[in-house]
Model the fold of this input.
Amino acid sequence: MAILFLFLDGVGIGKPGAANPLDASWPAIEQLAGGQRLTEPLSYILDEHHTVRAIDATLGVDGLPQSGTGQTALLCGINAPRIAGRHYGPYPHSKTRTQLTRKNIFSRILRVLNGTDEPVAFANAYPDRFFSFAKRRDRWTVTTRCCLDAGVRIRGEADARNGSALTADLTGEAWHDKLNIDVGRITPEKAGKRLAAISRQHAFTLFEYFHTDKAGHSRDHDRARNVLVDIDAFVGALLEELDPLSDLLLLCSDHGNLEDLEIKTHTRNPVPLIALGAKADLFHDVTDLTGVTPAIEKAAVALSNRAISSAS
Done:
């Protein structure tokens, strides 16, 4: 599995209670979090092979965190809302453009693992209409802009059909039902197995899941529960594939939302950071979004050096 980063959009650490769908029994999520729910008060775990902590997503800027600056901070290691002068989204802010190009996680790992065959991958598939819209208006999400700037392939419909990418909803049902695009339907468990297989081909793999944020905005408890049913099964499959001595599974978010269905907006709650497996201790000192990518870069170098030493 090497390093696999599961980015869940819009998941914060909030108060337990009826408004928080994370305050329920989600066995795989609880296993990943060290036997606890992703609610306040989250007990920190700082072991050699396991880090669990809540990290700040506000970055010292007033207002509600947004996806554009939050994801840029998360995937570039920079205080994007401070640079932009405000929280901004859903697309990257123009003032962060230069640093987004130079400091995004894909570019960082490509530099430090120079010469390795295809060391990084973005496992999401996008429909053809996304590319048409994005190219026409030059409106790329943070993750796809990172790919463009780093020269990383953005996967499409053919990749989803042949099993070398995942649709954003994991199963392919949303593409079939809402976009009339048939790439085959799979279970969340099979999606987890597929992502694990993809990640074994690369030193670092990123997968983005944004339906958590959409469910939060909807304030629909049934929708939120259905999303978490899928995520829990998906995470369970990933945990079955994880070798904690050689692989590193990461989970983090960009801002809060899903954890409070009483409101439609994002929240200022901290977000979960979980690292499970090899070099998880490199994430012990991460306190906010800007610390995640530098820690990933260090882990990639350490795991690559260890692999080279083992092979020699």
